[in-house]
Amino acid sequence: MPQFDPSTWVSQIFWLIITFGVLYFLLSKLALPRLASILEERENRVSGDLEKAERLKQEAEEVLADYQKAIADARTSALAALKESADKIAATGAKRQAEFDAQLKEKVQIAEDKISAARTEALSHIKDVATEVASAAAGKLLGADVTESKVSKAVDEALGGRG
Amino acid sequence: MASGGSHGPMQQFEVNPIVALKLGSYDISFTNSALFMVLSAALITVFLVYSTRGRALVPGRWQSMAEMSYEMVANLLRDNVGSAGRQYFPFVFTLFMFILFGNIIGLIPGTFTFTSHIAVTFAMAIVIFLAVTVIGFVRHGAGFLRLFFPHGAPLWTAVILIPIELVSYLSRPISLSVRLFANMVVGHVLLKVLGGFVVMLGLFGVFVLPVLVSIQALELLVGALQAYVFTILTCIYLHDAIHLH
Q1: Does residue B4 register a pLDDT over 60?
Q2: Of A5, A10, A52, B132, which residue is least crowded by CB atoms under 10 Å?
Q3: Which long-range contacts (CB under 8 A, 24 or more apart) does B91-95 make?
Q4: CB contact under 8 A, B28 and A42
Q5: Distance between CA atoms of B234 and B236, rounded to whole angstroms?
Q6: What gap in Å lies between CA B9 and CA A157, rounded to an integer?
Q7: Which of B27, B65, B128 to mutate to test the interface with A (most CBs of A within 10 A)?
Q8: Contact B113/B182 with Cβ under 8 angstroms?
Q9: From the CA of A65, how many Å to the nearest CA of chain B?
Q10: pLDDT classification of B7: cutoffs 50, 70, 90
Q11: Can you give the pLDDT at residue A149?
């Protein structure tokens, strides 16, 4: 086996040390720092992006919360306004009703007064009319002149019961 | 061992000088082995540097592969050693990539697999072994010797446990290097022998070819797996040196 020929050992080990040494130098000074920086940069970029995404998500959630709060507030105030106007309308209605009732009552009162006045007047006239009618009727029926005072007395008597 | 210049299955492991060089009395010729070490190192560098040139936030295919290899080794180190192992990351990563590329490039027919040589794997293993031992003593002083006696075991068991632990500790570089070396050699010999069959059988070689292809696929897996095993064992040794079990 050529492997056990010691005459080549020195040369092999010599070139091993040279090539390995040069390769070690090149990798540790050139390739590995570059690879390390690439990987680190990517790591930073990815974690930066994740952080940003997290922040944006939080912001979006805040906006959503604000929006929901605004909607809830608007609903509450709308309900309050609705209730207030309903109350107002009810109060106005009641007031108007009361006014109308009072007016109506007044009108009824006036009408009743008028009616009673008219009745009184009518009643006071009824006697004259009755007297006149009675005397005219008596004159026609009896052919005799009936005195005004007699008729009036008789009408009074007839009306007396109804007064 | 008596492969010589023949075209046997061992011929692929021959180390041949391309440029003869001498350092004092030592032969440090630039060989086919050295060529593929340089090639692996160059390919790794080009792969990692070129794929990340855009520093894309969303990686393409090549950058993804570079990032995956980085994260794979980083996770391996973190899971096995913890944060204390961070400073050894460049070494562990270089080790993994170097062995992985050596194994995989070696699977291309006609290439040379430098990880199939015990000299190379043992040199890496002994450096790791010595480094881990030094790290252990630097971190824990003489307390590092507690590694050889499990905490809480009855004192009399020390007679048995300490020699066992010591032997298992000292055999680490051997098992680490032989595992990689043997896997690579066996795989390549198998491929060579099967390839020989295919050629030898002529037209009937078509029936052996699928076997060869599946062994090739298996060797690809073994090559990646052995690089991973070598790396994870290095991490475990580091863990022992830093945390003492």
Answers
A1: no
A2: A52
A3: B91/A24, B92/B231, B92/B234, B92/B235, B92/B238, B93/A27, B93/A32, B93/B69, B94/A20, B94/A23, B94/A24, B94/A27, B94/A28, B95/B124, B95/B128, B95/B230, B95/B231, B95/B234
A4: no
A5: 5
A6: 172
A7: B27
A8: no
A9: 37
A10: low
A11: 77
- Which token pair is B170? 């000292």
The interface predicted TM-score (ipTM) is 0.91
A4–B118 CB contact, under 8 Å: yes
The pLDDT of residue B125 is above 70:
yes
Residue B212 has pLDDT above 70, yes or no: yes
Give the model's pLDDT for residue A145. Answer: 67
B chain contacts of residue A1, beta-carbon cutoff 8 Å: 1, 3, 10, 13, 185
Quick check: A136 and A160 in contact, CB under 8 A?
A: no
Please give the mean pLDDT across all residues of chain A: 89
Reported pTM: 0.75
Judge contact between A130 and A155, C-beta under 8 A. Answer: yes
What DSSP element (H or E) covers B221? helix B205-243
